[in-house]
Structures are given as C-alpha cells and as structure tokens.
Amino acid sequence: MTTKPSRIVPGTESEIHEEPHIQGSRVTVRDVHARVEQRGLAPERVAERYNLDIADIYEALAYYHNNPAEMREVEERHERAVAEAKDRSSLTPPDN
C-alpha cells in the first residue's frame, strides 16, 4: 500500500500569513478546522466548496490536532490581526 506525500505546507514555509495550508491552494488549516469543527460543516461539503480531495480536508484536520502549539500561535496571531483591523476601520462606531 502506498501513501500520498503530505500536502500540508507548514506555517514556516507558507506564504499565506505564515499559516499552514493545503499545497496548491490558498485554503488554510485554520479555515478547514473552523468550517468543520466549529461551524459543523461536513468535510465532504468543505472539500466540494474548495475543489479539494476529501483526504486533504482530513489531513488538514489531523495537522491541526497534531500541532497544537503551532495552531494556537496561528489562532492568536489571527485574532490580533482581526482586532487591529477592527480598530483601524472607519466603519466601526466609536465606543460611548
């Protein structure tokens, strides 16, 4: 039985905000995790949505759970970026 080489690009080698992603796509491991495990979408639906193989989705989920420290850092960096963007946005009403 042969196995496919990993299609997950680690964050240290990624050009997508230094986040691990599925090779040949701009789909991040964090996004796959959010859609499947936080929003409850079926892995098959996520694979269809991004035109990926179902194995890529499961590999991304496995990567997320096998690399908790890296993914925690990615989540924290993303949350900071969202907060900073929100602070800079002129669309956010000022706090009274």
UniProtKB/TrEMBL annotation:
Pfam families the record matches: DUF433 (PF04255)
InterPro entries: DUF433, Homeodomain-like_sf, WH-like_DNA-bd_sf
Signal peptide coordinates: none
Chain spans, region Disordered: 1-25, 75-96
Record's compositionally biased regions (Basic and acidic residues): 75-89
UniProt protein name: DUF433 domain-containing protein
Organismal lineage: Archaea, Methanobacteriati, Methanobacteriota, Stenosarchaea group, Halobacteria
